[in-house]
Amino acid sequence: MWFRKKYGKQQKKKKFFNNKGFTLMELIIVLGILLILYAAFKPNKQAKDSAIAQSIVQQIEALNSAFEICVQAQGSMDYSACTDSVLQNYVPNNDLNALKNTQIKTTITYSFSSDGTSITYTIPLNTLSGNRFTSMQTMIANMLKNKARSVTTTSSGVQATF
Predict the structure, then answer these.
(1) Does the reported pTM lie above 0.70?
(2) Which of 46, 86, 108, 139 lies at a 20 to 30 A Cα distance from 73?
(3) Taken in order 121, 60, 148, 145, is the CA torsion positive or negative?
(4) SS3 140
(5) Mean per-residue pLDDT for 53-59?
(6) Where are the bilayer-spanning segments (predicted)?
């Protein structure tokens, strides 16, 4: 044969499979290790959202306390007499905006009843979406149930009347 003459030995055919790669079992083991590491160190979003909801409720309680102190200082039961400029004196560090701005980049707003005897706080959750919106809305509403006169959930957030 001319092939044998030219190269001295007959060359073997190359195998279809090459032994230079990883086996399927090795890849499965590495994937398993990665999944275990992810499960051990993934962030707990539920705990984070619960802490944010608690913070928002504390902000509302602080605002409501400031309104109560303001009304007592004014000598009337009309909450509407406590405008932002007056209320500023009754909040911690005289920083009303710090109480109104939340960690989820929304601002708590409030409105008064026509006779001024109640305050309705609106907590917009429009920066959240899907399950996170629903979860946060439920947590805040549940935390405020025992503290407010009424709590309603809306398509954009939560309203609580004190």
Answers:
(1) no
(2) 108
(3) positive
(4) helix
(5) 89
(6) 21-41
